[in-house]
């Protein structure tokens, strides 16, 4: 471990607030923030554009082998480059969101992604969010957090976010999309979404963003002081 620096793993279901608080915690500690979902989204975008079957594990794994995905720190978090093209906005499309879990369920895709993600954690000083960070990517993370909230609250938050960005939004459709993604992510055979045994569970349903970030920082400071 680089002296005085730790790894913080944040997992949880869709729209639980992982990236929002991960960014805040990373900023406060001047750590790198890594949104691993963006990597699965980038591969999904490329597969859709190139008409690669999302059912074909071999084709997706081969596509990933010839793909570069770079995550660059920016003022507001992270910019995502797919084969040197900025896809930060494109990977958030409804089409990518509705298909990404079908890509992420394949074991060989995950194996390659996990290797790429682990390469980013070698020096510690990282806050990484996703679905399998505490269980597979950084099983020895000094701080592990599992965030969740009711599906109603998560859909409401996403709806408010869409409205504030001027996007069309339907709260019932969001609820279904979130439920469907959670179902695929928790039921897949390879590294399903599950709380690591040693993760601290935080139900954010009635907590503010600052409350959640404070709790995670407090866990981190306890480790850093010990
Ligand atoms: N504790 C909270 N209270 C109120 N709103 C929150 C809270 N945490 C997050 N939000 C809001 O909820 C929305 C979803 O949060 P965020 O994008 O961080 O979730 P996520 O877990 O990273 O989602 P995904 O896994 O789908 O990428 C954002 O608009 C964010 O501002
Ligand atoms: N470590 C991870 C991260 C993400 N996924 C899959 O990607 C989807 C999109 O993630 P977001 O965080 O951007 O919503 C997610 O639903 C998972 O299917 C993953 O498997 N492992």
TrEMBL record:
Enumerate the Pfam families for this protein. Answer: Cytidylate_kin
Q: What is its EC number?
A: 2.7.4.25
Ranges for domain Cytidylate kinase: 8-219
Any Gene Ontology biological process: pyrimidine nucleotide metabolic process
The residues that the entry says bind ATP are: 12-20
Location (main, coarse): cytoplasm
Which reaction equations make up its catalytic activity? CMP + ATP = CDP + ADP; dCMP + ATP = dCDP + ADP
- The kind of enzyme this is, by top-level EC class, is transferase
**Cellular localization per UniProt:** Cytoplasm
According to the UniProt entry, the coiled-coil residues are: none
Q: What keywords is this UniProt entry annotated with?
A: ATP-binding, Cytoplasm, Kinase, Nucleotide-binding, Transferase
GO MF terms, alphabetically ordered: ATP binding; CMP kinase activity; dCMP kinase activity
**A GO CC term?**
cytosol
Fetch the InterPro entries from UniProt.
Cytidylate_kin, Cytidylate_kinase_dom, P-loop_NTPase
Cross-referenced NCBIfam families, in alphabetical order? cmk
Q: Which family does it belong to?
A: Belongs to the cytidylate kinase family. Type 1 subfamily.
PANTHER family of this UniProt entry? CYTIDYLATE KINASE, CYTIDYLATE KINASE/PANTOATE-BETA-ALANINE LIGASE
Q: Can you name this protein?
A: Cytidylate kinase
Which source organism?
Virgibacillus necropolis
- Primary gene name: cmk
């Amino acid at each position: 471990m680089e002296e005085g620096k730790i790894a913080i793993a944040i997992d949880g279901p869709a729209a639980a607030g992982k990236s929002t608080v991960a960014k805040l915690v990373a900023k406060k500690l001047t750590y790198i923030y890594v949104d691993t979902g963006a990597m699965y989204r980038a591969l999904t975008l490329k597969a859709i554009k190139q008409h690669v079957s999302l059912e074909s594990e071999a084709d997706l794994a081969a596509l990933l082998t010839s793909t570069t995905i770079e995550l660059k720190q920016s003022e507001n978090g992270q910019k995502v480059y797919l084969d040197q093209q900025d896809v930060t906005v494109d990977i958030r499309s409804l089409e990518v969101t509705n298909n990404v879990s079908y890509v992420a369920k394949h074991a060989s895709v995950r194996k390659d992604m996990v290797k790429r993600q682990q390469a980013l954690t070698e020096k510690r000083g990282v806050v990484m969010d996703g679905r399998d960070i505490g269980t597979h990517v950084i099983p020895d993370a000094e701080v592990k957090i599992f965030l969740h909230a009711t599906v109603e609250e998560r859909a409401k938050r996403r709806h408010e976010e869409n409205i504030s960005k001027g996007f069309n939004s339907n709260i019932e459709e969001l609820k279904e999309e979130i439920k469907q993604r959670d179902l695929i992510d928790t039921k897949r055979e390879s590294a399903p979404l599950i709380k690591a045994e040693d993760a601290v569970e935080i139900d954010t349903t009635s907590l503010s963003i600052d409350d959640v970030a404070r709790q995670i920082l407090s866990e981190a400071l306890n480790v850093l002081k010990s």
